Amino acid sequence: MSFSRWRQQLCVMLAVKWLATGLTIQQVADGLGYESVPSFVTMFRNVLGAPPGRYMAERYSKAGPMEN
């Protein structure tokens, strides 16, 4: 795995964790060093197949936070 791919995977894992704690997409994008929210959302969607808001809504509608 290349470093850039590894970094991208780490960013997605952190993003999901931080979004689950209630941080906003803006806060997560800033925390991960993205210059803009759209660039973060694009990366997230490319990796997980859905934008952060939809991914988290679908994840938590299927399983409560305690089941993760």
What are the key terms here?
71% helix, 4 helices, Arc Repressor Mutant, subunit A, mainly alpha, 68 residues, single chain
What does this structure look like?
The chain is an all-alpha fold and 68 residues long. The chain has one domain: Orthogonal Bundle (Arc Repressor Mutant, subunit A). It is 71% helix and 0% strand. The radius of gyration is 12 Å and the shape is globular.
List unreliable stretches of 5+ residues. none
Tell me the number of strands: 0
Overall pLDDT confidence: 91
- SSE order: HHHH
Strand content: under 5%
Architecture, CATH level 2? Orthogonal Bundle
The helix-and-strand class reads mainly alpha
Distance between the termini: 26 Å
Kindly identify the CATH topology. Arc Repressor Mutant, subunit A
How many whole angstroms does the radius of gyration measure? Answer: 12 Å
CATH class: Mainly Alpha
Total domain count: 1
Task: Label the overall shape.
Answer: globular
Helix content: over 70%
Q: What secondary-structure arrangement, pairings included, does this model have?
A:
Layout: H1 3-20, H2 25-31, H3 37-48, H4 52-62
Compact summary:
By secondary structure, the protein is mainly α. The chain has helices at 3-20, 25-31, 37-48, 52-62.
